[in-house]
Amino acid sequence: MNAPSANYWAVIPAAGIGARMGAAIPKQYLPLHGGTVIEHTVQRFLSHPRLSGVVVVIAPDDVHWPRTRLRGDAVPLIAVEGGAERYHSVLNGLIRLTDIAEPHDWVLVHDAARPCLRHDDIDRLIATLADHPVGGLLGVPVSDTVKRTGNEGNILETVSRAGLWRALTPQMFRLGELAGALKHVVDNKLAVTDEAAAMELAGHVPRMVEGHADNIKITVPQDLALAELFLKQQEACS
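^ that's the sequence the OP posted. Answer follows.
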């Protein structure tokens, strides 16, 4: 018997404040290339033909989201309230998705502060993982020399970079399995920094899929200028 066909959904956690930016407003609402960071990010999914809908997870007191120019015309665009940590927010988004999606559907979880994601990276992630038993994530192999230091900054060792990757997003897993893994994290008060780590704790083995290095996460002020450059370059090549 053939497996049921799966839809693809996006969950974008955007409930953080981005303290390292030192800005007066959360970094996802900072201006970038004719819009805001989050507008560029969400639009990458709203405009992708394989996506069935987008859930954005915002802070309970978020006054900026209603002012965005984002509209879910072709597919649903849903906003839900987030929680204390990223994994709480993602789980809230997944719980909302269960109202309209199936447990076997795929969910692409993507950082709100990664506005330069390319459509062809989404394509590659979907094509590579469509038949994978677990799912996986975009990443970039580590190319720099890696050092491990002690508390005072002194180098303890040079770490082999063989097999090391920088984890990016989206991270793509089945709705039911990812929700179960994150619920396990929350119920047991575990700490994870991404969805793949939650899946690993649940005994799954995600796959790494190589993406483009311009899929940067805006963290400090100089990242905005770099994202602006990447967006212009992508437009010039499209």
